[in-house]
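I would like you to sit down with the pair of lines that follows and say whether C-alpha cells and residues agree.
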Amino acid sequence: MSTYSGGKLVFFASGNMHKYNEIRAMLTEYGLASAMLRIKGTEIQSDSIREIALDSAKNAFKQSRVSLFVEDAGLFVDALNGFPGPYAAFVYKTLDNQGLLKLMEGATNRRAVFRSAIAYCDKDGAPVCFEGETEGEITTAERKTDAKTAFGFDPIFKPLGSEKTFAQMKIDEKNAFSHRAIAVRKFSEWYTKRYRRRI
C-alpha cells in the first residue's frame, strides 16, 4: 500500500491500457488512485484464471518489490466446450472476432461467460484473489461504435440484461455489467478496509 498527497495509491501490473482505463474508473469510486506498472512476466499454462492471476501477482511482486495487483480474464463459450477460456487473449490475436464467429456458425446455444480474477500481492505473504463473472451471449456479428474503449471480444459479447455489446457501451455502462468491474469492486472494498485498519 502506498500513499500520495491526494489519497491512496495502488499499482496495477499490466501492459493493457484498455483494462487500466476501466479499472482506474472503478478505483476512484473508492477514493483510490492508480498507476500502471509495465512488467514483463511469464504466464503459467492453466485452465484456471484464478491460478494464473495468483501466479502472475507473485511474479510481478518479485520483480518490482512493490505492492500491486494483476487481472486475468477469460471468455468461456458453451457451444465450444468452454473455449477459449483463459486463452482468450491468445485466441483473439490468432483468430480475431471473425474467427470465433466462424467457429460458432450454426450454433443455437450462444451462451457465454466472461470471468475475471484480480490478485493482489505485497510483502506480507501469499497473494489474495477476487473474482467476478458476467453471463451473456455471443452475437452473430460484430457490433461496436466508434469508441476507442472497446477491445478483445467486446464487439461480440452481449451481457444479460442489455441490448448492447460491451463494445457499444461507454466505460461507465460497461462497468455496470462487467466481470472485471465485479472483481475490482470486491478488491477495492477489501483493500480500503485493510488500509483503514493500518492507519
